[in-house]
Amino acid sequence: MGERRRSLLVGVALIGPALLVLLLVFLWLMASYLWLSFHAQNLFTDLQPVPVGMLNWRRLVLDARFWQDAAQTLRFALVSVSMELGLGLAMALLLNQRWRGRGLVRSLTLLPWALPTTVMALGWRWIFNDPSGPINGVIGGLTGSTVPFLASPSLAWLAVVLADVWKTTPFVALLLLAGLQMIPADLYEALALEGGNARQALLRITLPLLRPYLLLVLLFRLAQALGVFDLIVVLTGGGPASSTESVAGYAYLNAMRFLDFGYSATVMIGMFAVLLLLGGVLLLVLRRPARFQP
Amino acid sequence: MAGILALLALPLAWARPPLTITVLMPAPFAEATAETVAAFNRDHRRLRIAVARGPFETEAVSDLAISSLLLGDSPYDLLMMDVTWTAKYAAAGWLLPLDDWLDGDPLAGVVPGAREGNRLDGQLWRLPMLASMGLLYWRTDLMAAPPRTPAELVDRSRELQEQGLVRWGYVWQGRQYEGLSCVFLEVLRGFGGRWGGPAASGIGLESPQAAAAASWLRQLVETGVTPTSVADFAEPESLQAFASGEAAFMRNWPYAWKELQKPGSAVAGKVAITTMVAEPGQSPAATQGSWGLSVLRGSAHPAEAVAVLQALTGEDSQRRLARDWGYTPTLASLFDDPELRAALPLLPALRQALEVAALRPITPVYAQLSDILQRQLSDAITGGLPPEAAMGRAGRSSRAVLDASGVEEV
After folding, report:
1. What total number of domains does chain B contain?
2. Of A67, A75, A135, A172, which has the maximum CB count within 10 A?
3. Which residues, listed in sequence order, are joined to residue B171 by a DSSP beta bridge?
4. Hey, of B232, B368, B371, which one would you mutate to test binding to chain A, going by the most A CBs within 10 A of its CB?
5. Are residues A20 and A127 in the same domain?
6. Interface check A152 vs B, CB under 8 A
7. Looking at the DSSP assignment, which residues form a beta bridge with residue B138?
8. How far is A253 from chain B (nearest CA, A)?
9. pLDDT at B299 > cutoff 70
């Protein structure tokens, strides 16, 4: 009994500081934003918070722009994160094999991740340029006409997805590679002895044992993608016709341009609620214990 | 005895560090005012100016300033301000009213086009430092005189395009950002409309003139006079298209002139400027985009800050900015200055444009109104919504914003 209590105390002491920081930084911030969402704080209240009850929340529910931005942000996050997971997994599997030059390629694949987002977004602005960017150079050479990627409300969001996939796939690959290296090699040897093939190795060993890593990457990337901001600011500025505006962009507009802090906080908490819901569903669906099937 | 003590104390007084007044400016202006600042610091023993170099992009400077102001203790005494910020900053209580600190009418020497947008609710909040306004750039090698009406501009463009002399007729700023509001204001005025007025009337956007102006912009894209990619054009993209010789006309600010004369430009020496086209019987209009200086209310040394404000917006400073950097002055006296007229052949044309300067609505909620207009215009230009419907939406949304803020007229 004494032993158990001691280990419990040590455990609490060890995670205590981290928990405290988390509480201070995260919960305090969220709580103050939640509080602010029930207040008006804008130019007409002399920038002082004034209680307004549910006013901001009623406005949010009726705000077509918020829902449009939420839908656009979700679409962006789901499409880009699925592509990143698929490509990242392929990259990780490839980089986990032994071949000449692997070390060099491993370092090179990390380059996009190392670039500051604004810099790489400027690069992609040029790549998508109509008519002088390289993509339109190829399209123009083949078809004789060019595609206004960033000036078309139906294409601009795909351009944002592509730039994001390019930048963050290496991050996904890196985490999954770490996961792959945790899988004991003797499992594969045992499978080989039993006459199993590569497909079985992937489906019965690799993927099940990689599941916790996949889940971790998925949550990381979803949270990041749902807060997308700087990439869009540089690449499209939220246009054309607000087709690439994200919720974070809308919250920023309300706070920094309109000085409407009460509503900006409501927009952010609103999106956080959506994120929480999504995260909960994902955890329920995906968080089953890894099973090893010989 | 007292005299000896005073003598002894003198070196101590000198040893006291001089009072520093900090000015936040966008990076390009920090560079352009460096000489004026150096001269000021040479001439003043007890007072010196420190310039904080802000980001290049206009709105990023505002973000930086606002962040520091929200935190309460801003490190800046003076702020270089875009004309559209003044009302917002004044309403937020961040600016020092200048009337008590300046004698006479501080705007008396300013040309009419740059005088507006500084005084609000009977208080002076800002002194203009340099002017900027929307101009129509045209190719002197392709035509003898610029078009005066929207129809003429389109006809001339199509002729030149059909003759294969240019790929595009007219390039402008169609990205969903502040520049699009500036472009639209000029076209709207040219069609006899107005952006502003009672909230109940949709501040002029639910009008046939607004619909005509938005339709004209959409048709430019539809008929190929303007490239489709204009919906992603800010100033640099339009400048690039025009400088490469691909377009006959461009809408841009005065800064573009110098860029067009540089070696990389295909149109150096083949460009002239004029004011935007307007329907017969309507006056052309040039969106005013002036920069000025304001003193922050939180400044611990308002008297000294005002002295710096006067030095930086004064005649010597403006002369240097015009002569060495090509910026348009706001003081009337400088437009007749022989030295400047020789250095800047554009000066008379710029003054003419300033005479038809059009102001964007002066209101604390300007950013909301402009955001609404940009969003709907972008929708119209890219063909998502018929222009008339888009303007109707813009008018209704503007009314909603104004109603919620208790503002009846802008």
Report:
1. 1
2. A172
3. B250
4. B232
5. no
6. yes
7. B249, B272
8. 9
9. yes
The mean pLDDT value of chain A amounts to 91
Evaluate whether residue A292 is within a structural domain. no
**B269 lies in a domain?**
no
- Cβ-based contacts of A131 with chain B (< 8 Å): 227, 229
Burial class (CB in 10 A: 0-12, 13-18, 19+), B136: buried
| Structural domain contains residue B145 | no
pLDDT-above-90 percentage for chain A: 65
Q: What is the pLDDT of residue A23?
A: 85
Residue type, B230: V
The answer to whether B318 and B329 have CB atoms below 8 angstroms apart is yes
Same-domain pairing of A89 and A2? no
Amino acid at A165: V
Q: Determine the distance from the C-alpha atom of residue A55 to the mean position of all C-alpha atoms in its chain, rounded to a whole number.
A: 31
Both A95 and A226 in one domain: the answer is yes
The residue range of the domain holding A101 is: 62-286
Across A58-73, b (16+ Cβ under 10 Å) vs e yields ebbeebebbeebbebb
- Tens of pLDDT, residue by residue over A199-231, are 899 998 999 999 999 989 998 898 899 999 999
| Same structural domain, A27 and A154 | no
Among residues B288, B289, B308, which one has the least CA distance to residue B98? B308
CB pairs under 8 A between A and B: 88
Q: Which helix (H) or strand (E) holds B280?
A: none
Q: How far is B237 from chain A (nearest CA, A)?
A: 10
Give yes or no: residues A116 and A9 share one domain.
Answer: no
Q: Tell me whether residue A270 is exposed, middle or buried, using C-beta atoms within 10 angstroms of its C-beta: 0 to 12, 13 to 18, 19 or more.
A: buried
Residue B232 and residue A131: Cβ atoms within 8 Å?
no
Give the tens place of pLDDT for each residue, B343-356.
Answer: 888 999 999 999 99
Confidence at A26, pLDDT banded by 50, 70, 90: confident
- Please report the pLDDT score of residue A288 as a whole number: 64
Query: A43 and B59 in contact by Cβ < 8 A?
Result: no
Give per-residue pLDDT as tens, A133-180. Answer: 899 999 999 998 889 999 999 999 999 999 999 999 999 999 999 999
For helices A55-62 and A261-286, give the axis angle rounded to 10 degrees.
70
The pLDDT value recorded for residue A294 is 45
- Read off the CATH number of the domain in which B113 is found: 3.40.190.10
Query: By the 8 A CB rule, do B312 and B325 touch?
Result: no
Write the CATH number for A66: 1.10.3720.10
Can you give the residue range of the structural domain that contains B316? 2-131+289-355
> Is B379 among the domain residues?
no
A138 and A76 in a single domain? The answer is yes
What are the start-end ranges of the E strands in B253-289?
271-274, 286-287
Q: Do A148 and B66 touch (CB under 8 A)?
A: no
A14 and A75 inside one domain = no
Domain count, chain A: 2
Question: B59-77 pLDDT, tens per residue?
Answer: 889 999 999 998 888 899 9
**Which amino acid belongs to residue B276?**
M
Question: B153 with B251: CB under 8 angstroms?
Answer: no
Residue A239 in domain:
yes
**Is residue B178 a part of any domain in this protein?**
no
